[in-house]
Amino acid sequence: NVAGWKNVVDKVHEKDGLIYLQLWHMGRQSHTSFHPSTNDILSASAIPIKNATAKTIKGENVPYETPREMTKEDIKQTVRDYVKATRLAKDAGFDGVEIHSANGYLLDQFLQSSTNERSDEYGGSMENRIRFLREVVEALIADGAYPSNRIGFRLSPNGAFGDMGSEDNYEMFPYVAKEMDAYGLAYLHLMDGLGFGFHNKGKVVTPYDIRKNFSGPIIANVGLTKDIAEGLVRSGTVDLVAFGRLYISNPDLAERFENDWPLADSPPYETWWSPMGAKGYT
After folding, report:
1. Taking 60 as the threshold, does the pLDDT of residue 39 lie above it?
2. Using CA atoms, how far apart are residues 140 and 49, in angstroms rounded to an integer?
3. What is the pTM of this model?
4. Rounded distance, CA 149 to CA 217, Å?
5. How far apart are the C-alpha atoms of 46 and 115, rounded to whole Å?
6. Do the strands 218-221 and 188-191 form a parallel or antiparallel pair, or are they unpaired?
7. Sign of the dihedral defined by the CA atoms of residues 111, 78, 100, 151, in that order
8. Is 105 a catalytic residue?
9. In 3D, which of 133, 145, 138, 124 has the Cα closest to residue 184?
10. How does 148-166 read in b/e, with b if 16+ C-beta sit within 10 Å?
11. Are strands 61-63 and 53-55 parallel, antiparallel or unpaired?
12. What confidence category does residue 279 fall into, taking pLDDT thresholds of 50, 70 and 90?
């Protein structure tokens, strides 16, 4: 895939743009049909996603499977996988990488107490639950494909996507931000907005809660309007803002904001990542 991605990266660079590669492991959100050699899916603990369906390799909707609790060797191998993927991103010319530790994917499954019931050094306390993320960050920095200031990470303390949400998130995620602040990372991509579903298991973690614990650049995301985004940036609470859904229905979103032009409505859910032709993300 390196050669294919290099074509994309080169086109972005020709327009003086920057592009980071988001690194993610689905953990329990995957399906065994994608892993024929192991017939396995992995997570922090053997806790399946409830009341939702997974996609098979054939695109079929099926109940989520129960993942296998990762062994310590599984964790070490996955850290090595992140290092290898980062090297490949460098070979393709990406300007940096973002560690996806949000949205109920593998690293988030270790961070949150609702999905991590381990009794070893990777479970229980906040210090233990952050260990996997810390090991990934430290391994990428030590490998040196990118310096620490070209490595970002993503958190979603309020989200319910992937059957997530924990009663202690209000304590856990500012702690994660504070611990990660020591590494001099490129940014923290914070999915703080509630427009993608709130878990309702505790207090909302706000950008200000994170700003008090993280001195590097913060990117706010999810359900923002132009006015809210400008307020967050002007106040110094965050440094940048990100828009996703509005870009699907408004590919010229920046120009619409700049000129106060009206916006097309956000696209329906089924168009976000399914092939829908001209009606979807093309």
Report:
1. yes
2. 30
3. 0.94
4. 10
5. 8
6. parallel
7. positive
8. yes
9. 138
10. bebbbbbbbbbbbbbbbbb
11. antiparallel
12. low
Residue 229 structure tokens? 């985004």
Residues in the chain: 282
Of the candidates 20, 105, 122, 187, the residue annotated as catalytic is 105
d(CA 165, CA 160): 6
The span from the CA of 230 to the CA of 108, in Å, is: 29
Q: 226: helix, coil or strand?
A: helix
User: d(Cα 263, Cα 280) in Å, to the nearest integer?
Assistant: 16
Q: Judge whether residue 69 has pLDDT over 80.
A: yes
Structure tokens at 89: 């991103």
Tens of pLDDT, residue by residue over 109-138, are 999 999 999 999 999 999 999 999 999 999
Instruction: For 234-276, give the DSSP string.
Output: HTTS-SEEE--HHHHH-TTHHHHHHHTPPPPPPPPGGGTTS--
